[in-house]
Amino acid sequence: MSEAGARPTLEAVAARAGVSRATVSRVVNGEAGVREVLAAKVRRAVDELGYVPNRAARSLVTRRYDAVAVVIAEPETRVFADPFFALQLRGISKELTAHDVQLVLLLTEGRADHARVGRYLAGGHVDGALVFSLHLDDPLPVIINGAGVPTVFGGRPGWSGGEDSVRYVDCDNRGGARSAVRHLAGLGRTRIAHITGALDQTSAADRLDGFRDVLPTADARLVAEGDFTPAGGERAMRHLLDRCPDVDAVFAANDLSAAGALRVLRASGRRVPDDVAVVGFDDMLPVAEQADPPLTTVRQDIEEMGRIMAAMLLRGQDRSPAPEPEQARAHARARRRDTDDVGHAASVVLPTELVRRESA
After folding, report:
1. CB 172 within 8 A of CB 239
2. What are the residues facing 194 on neighbouring strands?
3. Dist. CA 127–CA 68, nearest whole Å
4. pLDDT of the chain, 360 residues: tens digit per residue
5. Could you tell me which of 236, 137, 251, 254 has the C-alpha nearest to residue 194?
6. Which candidate among 61, 109, 268, 328 keeps its CA 20 to 30 Å from the CA of 50?
7. In terms of DSSP H, where are the helices of 153-295?
């Protein structure tokens, strides 16, 4: 390799900055004990030379791999079709990128994949795991616990003792559902139905509980099971119309289910909101705003939930930020101050908000 094409070394950075190799190593690895004036010289030399740390060598010193596994307990056909996952991954990715940490995506198509995920996590490839979309009978929590990697879960744990023993991030699913149903009741609707999500997930169970909090004596026929998909919303809406043709309002467990319900209502000749008012959950803008009519829904900040998950994991490792370009440092410092409050929390539950549009 020619000198012009050679990869810059720590020694080259040290020579450019006028400091020792040890000082460069401490700055690059995010260690404390370097005066800011010297650290600034090192960061400037890193930028000028285009120095990229050797991750394999650095991991031997720091015992860190600068990578985090994101484990989604769903098949790829679901993950890449549902914008919820894209929003959560975007929040995770932004936080990891700000700390120069790589995202490794692991999906579980079926039970055969669980052992593969466990082997990967236990194999010393990542510094921790972010896990979401778990189902109640999912073996992943036990497998991940056996792998011995720090973990933050997305969503309230559904297994016995999980809420007391793990870190997790969720939204106020039950409170958000109550606000949706109260809104429909406040419109004078008396036959309010609920299309559930997949009831082997705590978010769906919590939203059903919120519905029942407001309507404890509701006709059991007004609850139809869905699965958080448009097709599931369509099936559930058909069942509701067959069983209860006088239904005048629907609270769907997510926006995708609500979109499916809207299609069935339109095909059946029902006008929304005149004949049947509809409220969703999530406020995923590509779905909610483009629905016909635009969807009244309960907003949860999905992207922020992902960011907080990543922040909790990184703060648990007491990780210092990677060198940054000067123009980005002020913004990054502000983001880290915001993160300090949640970094060591056992769990975080974010509030929800009803967003009114034309469907109810």
Report:
1. no
2. 223, 251
3. 6
4. 334 456 788 889 999 999 998 898 888 877 778 999 999 999 999 998 888 776 555 554 545 668 999 999 888 888 998 999 999 999 999 999 999 899 999 998 777 788 889 888 888 889 999 999 998 888 888 888 888 899 999 999 887 666 667 899 999 999 999 999 999 999 999 999 999 999 999 999 999 999 999 999 999 999 999 999 999 999 999 999 999 999 999 999 999 999 999 999 999 999 999 999 999 999 998 899 999 999 999 999 999 999 999 999 998 665 544 444 443 334 334 334 344 455 456 789 999 999 999 999
5. 251
6. 61
7. 162-165, 173-186, 202-214, 230-243, 255-267, 285-288
Sheet containing 347-350: which strands, arranged edge to edge? 102-107, 67-72, 128-132, 151-154, 167-171, 347-350
Nearest to 347 by CA among 131, 168, 132, 151: 168
- Which tokens belong to 87? 């929003």
Query: If residue 34 lies in a helix (H) or strand (E), which one and from where to where?
Result: none
Question: d(Cα 304, Cα 128) in Å, to the nearest integer?
Answer: 19
Tally of CB atoms within 10 A around 251? 32
* Whole-angstrom distance, CA of residue 350 vs CA of residue 309: 12
Q: How far apart are CA 119 and CA 114, in angstroms?
A: 9
Q: First CA to last CA across the chain, in angstroms?
A: 67
Closest to 277 measured CA to CA, from 195, 358, 220: 358
- Helix, strand, coil share (%) of the chain residues, nearest 5: 50, 15, 35
Question: Which ranges of the chain would DSSP assign to H, the alpha helix?
Answer: 10-17, 21-28, 36-49, 55-62, 76-79, 83-98, 112-122, 140-147, 162-165, 173-186, 202-214, 230-243, 255-267, 285-288, 302-316, 326-343
